[in-house]
Amino acid sequence: MRRTHRLLVSAALMAALLLPVSTVAAATTVTYQLSGTASAAIFPRVSLSGSAKTRVKNESGTWSAVFSQDLGAILDGTFTLTSKARSFSGSITGGTFGPATGSCSKSTIPVHGTVAGGGSFDVTVTRVGSLVNGSCVVSSSKVAGTATLAYP
User: Fold this and answer.
1) Three-state DSSP class for 100?
2) What is the DSSP letter of 9?
3) pTM score, whole prediction
4) pLDDT in tens, 3-54
5) pLDDT range class, residue 1, cuts 50, 70, 90
6) Using an 8 Å Cβ cutoff, are 25 and 41 in contact?
7) Percent of the chain surpassing pLDDT 90
8) If you average pLDDT over every residue of the chain, what do you get?
9) How far apart are CA 125 and CA 123, in angstroms?
10) Which helix (H) or strand (E) holds 12?
11) Mean per-residue pLDDT for 92-101?
12) What are the domain boundaries of the chain?
């Protein structure tokens, strides 16, 4: 009886050592510096795109965000980032757009978006324009900010 008990205990210990243990891997979170441009039209659809670099500059790639906005709220959209090391694509589940500050000659618009799958982006859109026949005509725009993305 003792011998059988010892064999069972030994077998259980060996199985515990040899069988793989299921572990939950923690997600890797990466923060990118974003720069780029914005489409001239910002209502109702906004399109932003440009280059992305990690803070330590060991990874770079391209990014884009395309979303709908109304009354300062981001309604839906997609965010993608692709580099040689990894790629991320997720639905924009919400966020804020604006309010804009400044004038037609130079205005800034803060943008915050939440991305499904573990991520967010915070950028500022700077637009330069001039009044033509009473309407503001945008001549250039730039985007700068960060994105923090979680990779499984």
Assistant:
1) coil
2) H
3) 0.78
4) 554 544 454 444 444 444 434 456 799 999 999 999 877 777 889 999 999 9
5) low
6) no
7) 64
8) 85
9) 7
10) helix 2-18
11) 94
12) 27-151
In degrees and rounded to multiples of 5, residue 28 shows phi and psi of -90, 125
- 111-147 b/e (C-beta count within 10 Å ≥ 16 → b): bebbbeeebbbebebbbebeeeeeeeebeebebebeb
> How would you class 53 by CB atoms within 10 Å of its CB: exposed for 0-12, middle for 13-18, buried for 19 or more?
middle
CA distance 65 to 60: 17
Q: Is the dihedral of CA 104, 76, 94, 24 positive or negative?
A: negative
Residue 2: strand, helix, or coil:
helix
* Amino acid in the structure at residue 134: G
Structure tokens at 131: 């009044």
Distance, in Å, from the CA atom of 96 to the CA atom of 47, rounded to the nearest integer, reads: 15
